[in-house]
Amino acid sequence: MKHTQTLKDFAFTFDNYLELDADDFYVETGCLIEFYDEHSEEFTDLEDELYWTVDGLVDVAGEYFDAIAKQEEDDERREQAQYLASEYNH
């Protein structure tokens, strides 16, 4: 039970992912992975279930941030294409 609060904190963070920016999301995801790698062998059954709940929340948040990253890439490509087209036309 010594890891329960940390897992609950991660659950809260990822359940409220709309309050994060992309950088914070990726940092928190890295922290979760590091925490899991260091402590998962010590998890109780309840903590293990809680971890997998958090992992599901990360998946949902990840889809959101992946969509934002894809849109930013698309916008950048479009801007580059417009710039190159304007340079070509001059």
Report on the architecture of this protein.
With 90 residues, this protein is mostly helical. The chain has one domain (4-88). 82% of the residues lie in helices and 0% in strands. The chain contains three helices and no strands. The N and C termini lie far apart (68 Å).
Mean pLDDT: 94
Count of individual domains = 1
> In this structure, how is the largest beta sheet organized?
none
What Rg is obtained from the alpha carbons, in whole angstroms? 19 Å
What key phrases describe this protein's structure?
single chain; 90 residues; mainly alpha; 0% strand
In short:
By secondary structure, the chain is mostly helical. It has helices at residues 4-15, 22-39, 45-88. The longest helix is centred in the last third of the chain and has 44 residues, at 45-88.
Secondary structure topology:
Layout: H1 4-15, H2 22-39, H3 45-88
